[in-house]
Amino acid sequence: MQQLYVIGIGAGDPAQVTVQAIEAMRRVDVFFVIGKGDAKRELVEVRTAILTAHLDRPHRTVEIADPPRDRSVTDPDYRGVVEDWHERRAALLEEAFAGTDGVGGILVWGDPSLYDSTLRMVRRVLDRGRVRFDYEVVPGVTSAQALAARHRIVLHDIGEPVHITTGRRLREEGVAPGESTLVMLDGEGSFTTVPGDDLHIWWGAYLGMPDETLIEGPLRAVEDQILQRRKELREQKGWIMDTYLLRRT
Predict the structure, then answer these.
(1) Is residue 133 a contact partner of residue 95, using CB atoms and an 8 Å limit?
(2) Alpha-carbon span 72 to 130, nearest angstrom
(3) Domain 2-138 CATH (choose: 3.40.1010.10, 3.20.20.140, 3.20.20.30, 3.10.20.30)
(4) CATH class name, domain 143-248
(5) Can you give the pLDDT at residue 58?
(6) Phi/psi class of residue 134: alpha, beta or left (left: φ > 0; alpha: ψ in -120 to 50)?
(7) Per-residue pLDDT tens for 24-82?
(8) Residue 205: enclosing H or E segment and its boundaries?
(9) Which is nearest to 36 in space by CA: 94, 109, 98?
């Protein structure tokens, strides 16, 4: 493989795929997809639908089984656990790349720059030195942008910062005064651990997808509603993908 495109495809709505992304996809001979198992098969199906809608040339798809990792958020060596998972993912990509001729492509949910490990794995593959290729990154619409658009809000207050973090870090650090906090990768409903009656939440699940769900209001008034809705959606679909913004009023 001589060239790889890492292509952001948006937060779930096929209409969010940019012209630049479509042009890049049309140069690709082989697409690599890291599968998340049967429970998240829908994520693979959305990628397949995007390719079917936009490609005008033959292509192949190589699906790679995602290696399991310890998802304990209390592990004192959390970073080490994730680094090990990335290393095993990179080894699988290396094997797939080594047997590929032509141009490769990886479709990334949202944008490759925000809470996605694809670029780290690509760099690991190159550092191993077994396969050599050039790569180009195509940006996509993030879930942060999709959340703001669907709730019709600005992510930060006037002249104030917005802090992007994870559920794990939110539990540890809370919400700073005068700062809007965007939370991603929260499987635990960490907003319930943040003290205070002056917080407002804008929450969204499956943004851009047919099952998109939005809830907004004072955190203490709607947190139980969000937890219940998350539980129902997870039971219905087998997985949940959500994000939210917190701001003190």
Answers:
(1) no
(2) 33
(3) 3.40.1010.10
(4) alpha beta
(5) 87
(6) beta
(7) 999 999 999 887 666 567 877 888 888 888 888 888 989 888 777 665 555 567 778 88
(8) strand 199-205
(9) 109
Give dist(CA 134, CA 124) in Å, integer. Answer: 13
What pTM value is reported for the model?
A: 0.89
| Of 204, 90, 187, 75, residue with least CA distance to 145 | 204
What residue type is assigned to position 39 of the chain?
A
| Pair 205, 241: CB distance under 8 Å | yes
**Domain-wise residue ranges, the chain:** 2-138, 143-248
CB-count exposure of residue 208 (10 Å: 0-12, 13-18, 19+): buried
Query: How far is 67 from 89, CA to CA, in rounded Å?
Result: 7
Average pLDDT taken over every residue of the chain: 90
Tokens (6 digits) for 130? 């077994």
Per-residue confidence (pLDDT) for residue 2, from 0 to 100:
87
